[in-house]
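pipeline/complex-builder :: batch 7 item 3
reading input block
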Amino acid sequence: MAGKKQFDMDTVLDAAMIQFWRSGYADTSLDDLSRATGLNRSSIYSSLGDKDALFLRCLDRYATRYGDKFDAALSCAAEDPVAAVRAFFDVTLRRIADPAVPDGCLMAQSVMASPALSPSVAEHVKELFGLQRPRLRTALKAGGMSDENAEDFAVHIAAVNQSLAVMGRAGSSPEQLRAIVGVTVDALARALRPVG
Amino acid sequence: MAGKKQFDMDTVLDAAMIQFWRSGYADTSLDDLSRATGLNRSSIYSSLGDKDALFLRCLDRYATRYGDKFDAALSCAAEDPVAAVRAFFDVTLRRIADPAVPDGCLMAQSVMASPALSPSVAEHVKELFGLQRPRLRTALKAGGMSDENAEDFAVHIAAVNQSLAVMGRAGSSPEQLRAIVGVTVDALARALRPVG
DNA sequence: CACTTCTTGAACTGATCAGTCCAAGATGGG
DNA sequence: CCCATCTTGGACTGATCAGTTCAAGAAGTG
């Protein structure tokens, strides 16, 4: 077998991402990754680099995949910001309900574990994690919200969205998760209605 | 040295708890615990049991210490539920601002890491984590809220409270954390005011 | 069909892990 | 002052970790 990779890179990266997502960085060994991807250790190293490099690629993959979905959900914010935020939360709620994918959130658990990561990886995690807030702020301002309110709601919504993964992993039911976002969506609707 | 322990159990348990809190279960080795507590490995085993047993004691210690503070904060819920919830959040905000203690939250990060914990420990973590919601529900009902609203706000407030630790560890400023709880407290105040 | 090129599997290295064991030594009772 | 008792420190075990190395062998090229 020369000159041709024996595997599909997308499939392999998905498998590795899901492994990190399910077990976290510290509890994912190279043997786990080898088993999950079907690749030998030396194939992983030669094609994807060391554990940190592979983890970074998985983080970027995760951030891009769901970042695009969040952007799409918020794209109607100018016309109907409340519907946009509802769609934003739905991305997460659907991800949690999807049996093809682990519960929890790769970003949130990586942030929580960041003191144990190498400094450069930890920095990258925080950067990716921080993309959520400006995304929301821009959408809320497009929806007609004042600067100050948009700031506050953006960070609040980012926090609530992140909490869904933790609550889901802790055993909260889909109904409870909907109740969590319901309070936030109601508050947003009220804040956007000029006469309250 | 016979018949007398050479150390203060409270001091040792605090040191171990903080070590787990800072680094998480997976990234805390017995050498770390030995260094943090000043106790030798064999002293840890003979006095506190194995790593899982010690971790459980630290979890219980954490849950009791902050659980008591949360209860105290909510004790005025019948007279002023909004002030009670504000005080509830203040327990967490003050903990995050306290330099004597790690950022993050031992419960939240243990829940996130639960798939990598032994099943019995994971179960215990989820139990302790689940204590927050009924605590809040009882307080909100005492404050005059309807059953349905109390349910929804209880799980929402528990989620937001939990998210503060993650957002703090991700680098959010104290002002941003206050904005996160501000939205929730405002929503609660509105829900409690009979005429909105 | 032969040769070059690259992937691949398995063995190996040194470090670190949780957990065990035991001799050394300190203390309190007699 | 001596002995029994218990804590303590350090050495040890077997497992697992990330990362490296290398021979075997398959595909492409002529």
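note: Chain B has ten helices and no strands.
queue -> next item
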